[in-house]
Amino acid sequence: WRFEWRIMFTVPFIALEVDTSWSRLLEAYIALARTYYVLCIAFGALAFIPNAVAEKLPRIVQVLRNVLNNSVGRGKTYDERGARELGSSYGSALVRRLLSASVPKRWFSHLYHVAVCCNLLGLLLLLASASCLPEPTSVSRILSSVGHRHTLVALSLLQFHVTRRLLENYFVHAHSEGGRMQLVGYAFGLLYYVFLPANFVTPEVVRNASLDLLAGGSGACDLRNAFQRMGGFFIDPHPAKEISLLAIFFLGNLAQYQCHASLASLRRPGGRGKGKASGEKYKIPQGFWFTYCSSPHYTAEVVLYVALITLSDSWGISTFLLMTMVLMNLGLSATMTQRWYLDKFEDYPKRRWAMIPGIF
């Protein structure tokens, strides 16, 4: 289980020796994830700058702001004309082509392929590490077991969520043939799911990864005892709070699934929509979840993430950055969706909020 090697980098007059282990790889992975989320938050903040102020900012800031606004749109909210204008306004030919490039919206399923694979790999590595944990006979060993348990809960629930989303993309969603999304947004989405598991890796898991696991305890790793050594899925013998949070998590998933099914049905004859279709494609979505909200599937996403993080006791710097990015991204997308509905349908319900009824 010990994983180390030495790499010698030789350049003129300089020799650098790097000693790498599993724990250092995990630390680098977590650091890269945090850097990614910080950059995304800084990038996303540009969208909240008023137009009057943005016009006075340097040219590069204006371009980045336009890239952001264009990358958030998908399908009906994707501004193809704006993308072409963006591609002809800045930089070299390669940069312009990258800024204006788009991919089919159905490629959104690729994000969940990446999410399922990356998170499953994290789960397998966690179980392998937990199977080598010594018996929790001391405070430090108990804390190590609890740290592994928190990561196990988070990644297990996350695996359920991303697997469900992947299946929905194939069996529920009805992507239009001409639906597009910007290449930049697609690339950022892939990176989001590559780094998502890093937010739930506890310090105890990182520390344990650096140990020579085969040298302690019984001298052997037993995968069958992994759950036992982590203390099981629930710690409290009367886990009312944990069961409640678990119920909220699954309710969020159920609500999101029902929202996606309702939106997909609008493209089929007899779908639960109202009014004439805009461009023979879209109707006003109806149903319980859409009564006071234009994007209730985004609301459900926030709810299930909060329940997951709270249940796994994972609140910290990483998850704070994660939720900040999630709220900014979903908020911008919900705002674009709300504006699109109001522009396309004169009879769109005025009582509907964009994402969070009564607040936003």
Notes on the protein architecture:
- By secondary structure, this protein is mainly α.
- The protein is built from 13 helices and 6 strands.
- Strands 1-2 form a two-stranded antiparallel sheet. Strands 3-4 form a two-stranded antiparallel ribbon. A two-stranded antiparallel ribbon has the order 5-6.
- Helix 6 runs parallel beside helix 8 (183-195) and helix 7 (139-171) runs parallel beside helix 11.
- The protein is globular and about 65 Å long.
Summarize, please.
By secondary structure, this protein is mainly alpha-helical. It has helices at about 20-45, 50-55, 60-70, 80-85, 95-100, 110-130, 140-170, 185-195, 205-210, 225-230, 240-265, 295-310, 315-345; strands spanning about 5-10, 15-20, 100-105, 180, 275-280, 280-285.
**Helix segment count?**
13
Distance between the termini: 49 Å
> Strands across the major sheet, in which order?
1-2
Number of strands: 6
Shape: globular
Beta-strand proportion: 5-15%
Unreliable segments (pLDDT under 50, ≥5 consecutive)? 1-20, 212-219, 275-280
The largest pleated sheet is described as:
2 strands, antiparallel
**What class, by secondary structure content?**
mainly alpha
Key phrases:
360 residues; mainly alpha; two-stranded antiparallel sheet; two-stranded antiparallel ribbon; 13 helices; 6 strands; globular
How do the strands and helices of this protein lay out in sequence?
Elements: E1 4-11, E2 14-21, H1 22-45, H2 51-54, H3 59-72, H4 80-87, H5 93-100, E3 102-104, H6 108-130, H7 139-171, E4 180-182, H8 183-195, H9 203-209, H10 226-229, H11 240-265, E5 273-278, E6 282-285, H12 296-311, H13 317-344
Antiparallel strand pairs: 1-2, 3-4, 5-6
Helix pairs in contact: 1-9, 1-13, 3-4, 3-8, 4-5, 6-7, 6-8, 7-9, 7-11, 11-12, 12-13
